[in-house]
User: Fold this.
Amino acid sequence: MPTAYSPYDLPSGGWIAAAKQAWARGGDDNISLIAAGVAFYGFLAMVPLMAATVLTYGLVADPQTVAVQMQSLAQDLPGSAAELVQDQLSAVVESSSSKKGLGLILALLVAVFSARKGAGALIIALNIAYECKESRSFIGKNLTAIGVTVGGALIVLLSVGAIAALGFLDGMLDAAPAVFAPLGKILAYLVLAAAITGGAALLFRYGPACETAAFKWLTPGSVLAAVGIVVATLLFGYYVSNFGNYNATYGSLGAVIVLLTWMWASAYILLLGAEMNAALIASNATAPEL
Assistant:
């Protein structure tokens, strides 16, 4: 692959070569298996992260407000996974409604600390993708994990706020021709993709133990992750709604299996984006301002 000053200077052949390298690197690094570990720890961190998000909003306003918006966002999750997340959100809001002042701040700190395990698993996965050896101290590593957790909660809040701001379109589009009806939903998905892109870029830049590259070299993998996660969510949701009957196979565990499968797919796509960036960086190591 020829050296380029920017990933956007690469010819089409360079992108194809990078994609092949990323796929090969992903296989060598066993990102499918690693994504399963990330999904498991992410599942364990899900409720604390919800609590951190709701409690953060609760510092300035009614937690019930953000919970309602988060539930509308969760509706796009596949099948019964959406119901599971919405039920957990309701439980989080109910438990947080009695917390005020110092108690609210302490509950927020506990929630963030509890959710750091999921972020820690993701950081380990990124170290593998970028071939970084963990050199940070125990405190430094945990502070990074907490930073990723807080960043994730803030990105969720920003996404919820942006999508809620688009809600006014629903009323306007009711009187519009039917062809414009999906516009609000499309804009919501674009906002979600933009949030994932920004979050992934920050994660790829500051998550690994070694310095990666300038943001322009991290954008391709971030966009790949965002588009891939949104598309995978829609396709998996369609499959679960129309073909997959997880409740018949797993009984009461069906919703958990659906959510874990979606989290695994999302983690896999995110790590594939990291491998894409790593392939571009490795093949252009001599490029200026890398």
Observations:
- Residues 254-283 form the longest helix (30 residues).
